[in-house]
Amino acid sequence: MLQLTKRTEYGLIALVHIAERGAAGCEFVSAREICDRYPIPRRLVAEVLKALQRCEIVESQRGPTGGYALARSPESITLGQIVTALEGAPPLTSCESPILLKSGGCEVHSVCPIRSPVHRVREQLWGLLEHTSLRSLLPPATQAHYAPRAAHAR
Predict the structure, then answer these.
(1) How far apart are CA 30 and CA 69, in angstroms?
(2) What is the DSSP string of 27-87?
(3) By C-alpha distance, which of 61, 63, 71, 64 is closest to 22?
(4) Which fold has domain 6-143?
(5) 25 or 42: whose pLDDT is higher?
(6) Is it the case that residue 46 has pLDDT exceeding 70?
(7) Beta-carbon neighbour count of residue 96 at 10 Å?
């Protein structure tokens, strides 16, 4: 069905690592640290982090103590925002493919029996991604660190 690209998988790994380190008091995390922890290509992680920075999901700081940090709390960053930042909204059917749309579209477009139902499935999937936060991917101990302040007051 839907398969995320390696780019998005690495982005999610990097964001979870950054959130965990932020919960532990580390302000900025380098791409090198992420790649030392996980066997993923540094060049691709650096590209992913730059894309996430452009979309204001992470912020960066240069220098020896620099790196990347979350620009917002993990509960305010959705998986939909992350996927969109790294790969756009992936088409579910070939008729939603940007290449096919540029070439004039599908020959059965006007009478297609699956176009509307598949579109609804896609919308529901995106709704799920938009309502799932980065915080939900974190280990329970890290999630507790990011719990809303009202929960701590009880």
Answers:
(1) 9
(2) --B-HHHHHHHS---HHHHHHHHHHHHHTTSEEEE-STT-EEEESS-GGG-BHHHHHHHHH
(3) 71
(4) Arc Repressor Mutant, subunit A (1.10.10)
(5) 42
(6) yes
(7) 16
